[in-house]
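Justification of computing resources. Each target in the renewal requires a structure prediction run like the one illustrated here; the chain below, 279 residues long, is used simply to show the kind of job we budget for.
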Amino acid sequence: MLLERILGQDRALDAIRRAAARPVHAYLLVGPRGSGVEDGARALAAALVEAETDERVARGRHPDVVEFRPSATEYSVERDVRAAVLPELHAAPVEGPRKCVLLLEAERLNDPSANALLKSIEEPPPRTVVILVADAADALPATIRSRCQTIPFGRLSPALMQQVLVGAAASLAHPPELLELAAGSPGALLQHREQWQQLPEGLTERCASLSGADPLNALALARDLSEALEVEQQLWLLDWWQLRLWRQTQDPGIQQRLEQLRRQLRSEEHTSELQSPYV
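Resulting structure tokens:
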């Protein structure tokens, strides 16, 4: 069963079981990526369509459990909502007593797409349940939130995060700062690990060993960073570097210089976006 795959979310799982026993028309499941929130939505849907042992739900192939994600950076009113989501919302169940429509990454609903969905979320067809999944409730318009029963998923402890990562075959060694940067989100930790593994060999060692009293080494490192990494990668490396140095020295002067560097990099990133022909 899908519920058995979710670790460290006892309160959320109890809420899902209660919701399955007394369903309402719309739910909002909120939690960081990798916390089990998407599997929680599928588990709720499986219970509502009476298919809890059917692996088709987990694979996204059950005809009465239909999942959507935005086709671009946001849900498009025409392409996503009107052409895809709304027709499914108003289609009858095929096998079970209900139909569940899952809107994953619902924080990417902009105001026009949210408005287009509002009436159907407030009053869906009698045998349809809408389940939204978002990483933060306040990322959604209040008009959407107020029409859903919310089920929160919390951030995981470091021990549970490691357990999730082992289950995901992601047990390679990583620096302890990545666990702090992830802030209880296994999904975020996986992203940080991916960024870490993409860094050129030896670069992090040079950052970690750099002395503020050695300006020539600092200049050489700055040159190599700008040549080897995109601005986005430099910003990520700066997050790790800043945390590591704070844990080692707690020197406010170093932190101020790194913040100054961060502002400069963000300014360069913004300038690059403005100059891009695709913006």
